[in-house]
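Appendix B: a complete holo record

For completeness, this appendix reproduces one full record from the ligand-bound portion of the collection. The bound molecule is magnesium ion. The inputs are the chain sequence and the ligand SMILES; the output is the full three-dimensional arrangement of the complex, encoded as structure tokens. No fields have been trimmed.
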Amino acid sequence: MPINEYSDGDDMSIDAAPATNSLAGVASAHASTRQPGNAPLGSGLEARGIHAWFGKHLALENVSLDFASGTVTALIGPSGCGKSTFIRTLNRMHEFIPSAAMAGEVLLDGQDIYSKGMDVTKIRLQIGMVFQKPNPFPSMTIGENVLSGLKLAQLKVENKDDLMQECLERAGLWAEVKDRLGAHAGGLSGGQQQRLCIARALAVKPKVLLMDEPCSALDPGSTLRIEDTIGQLAQTMTIIIVTHNMQQAARVSDYTAFFLSDGGPGNMIEVGPTNEIFSRPRDQRTENYVSGRFG
Ligand SMILES: Nc1ncnc2c1ncn2[C@@H]1O[C@H](COP(=O)(O)OP(=O)(O)OP(=O)(O)O)[C@@H](O)[C@H]1O
Ligand SMILES: [Mg+2]
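The structure of the chain with magnesium ion bound, as generated:
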């Protein structure tokens, strides 16, 4: 089905569309079943006028995006358009890259994480990150991996076993590892390792979880498992996920933001509810990208 099936101004409601595997169909099916989480742990994030440089190279220009509490937002766009750069500005990872600079504000609970006196370690506890390649500590046990963030941050917990179980359950891994918590994490499959990294991120109780292509190194089965986990987590937190997989964006996200660099610095071209971005995008460049005409 062409992507612009619904974009010609007629009244055809997306809900009335026949079952389909098209992006628009998948996104509208997701939207019809999904309620944004009531987010007891969640918190919204607001990026305002973000610019990012590597040396003199302006990689990202004036990106403003709101991430409402308890929602999942997908960041999409061709390689090199600044998705990873942008997501790294959201928890102050960008400033650790030599030569990197940035301008703009990122508000968590209304407070700019870049304002003077903010403790970077504390910010990272509230805004966690999961990377493209699963990166558990291979020589630590599964259980030690889950608790390693707490240890690094010198946080004390009352009952470590309960927390470990809770995090592994929320990451969708508990059933598979509960009998071998003392085994080395290096012995897990790639998909299990990625869910372990999610459990590790959850242990410090972040309000926001950033995920930069978390499934790109995984097989389709593991990918679906992680997507399931994202759906569960979104009940209680705010999630921002970079993905090259349009079907994935359609399956997991409530909102989608399209980035493009077009020869110059990366810009955010358009953001909206995912089913609208995939069925009737406002910008021709978004339509060209989501319909597979480039990128
Ligand atoms: N560490 C770095 N040093 C210098 N330039 C960088 C660095 N990281 C990224 N860039 C540049 O910034 C721009 C945006 O890169 P970024 O990695 O954010 O893109 P991306 O959208 O995540 O791409 P991909 O989809 O391939 O992961 C590119 O021009 C890239 O070359
Ligand atoms: Mg990237």
